[in-house]
Specification:
With about 140 residues, this protein is an alpha/beta fold. It has four helices and seven strands. The longest helix has 12 residues.
Amino acid sequence: MSRMIFAIVLMIAGIAPAHAGDSPKATLYKDPQCGCCEAYAGYLRRNGFDITIIPTNDLEAINRKAGVPEEFEGCHAMFVDGYVIDGHVPVNVVRRLLSERPKIAGITLPGMPAGSPGMGGAKTESFVIYGLPKDGGRPTVYATE
């Protein structure tokens, strides 16, 4: 009963109680020299993610183990809630993945497209984010932004 009263007081005050799912925890593996990965991590932090950054020179091996084909690689690999998110994927697509919970290994935005989160420049074309099947099959379009 006292928890319910506390929750009502918080709602009246305009403060939402924290829940475990409010701040997704993610681990981002990046090249030690890459600045855009740091910018992407900052973007995710500003959008409520708890990011741990691990510099590595083994991104290729990490991507292979996670099921990301070479031609679909982004510039970093992030792991959150059992999924791999490769590249500069917009936060709304990451949140969609985490809420829908599809039976895939993860998602990727290949390359380093201008205007994507963490990258400089203006967006010049749609971002095509691919779903990565768990069975190692060919990635398919998951979202277009």
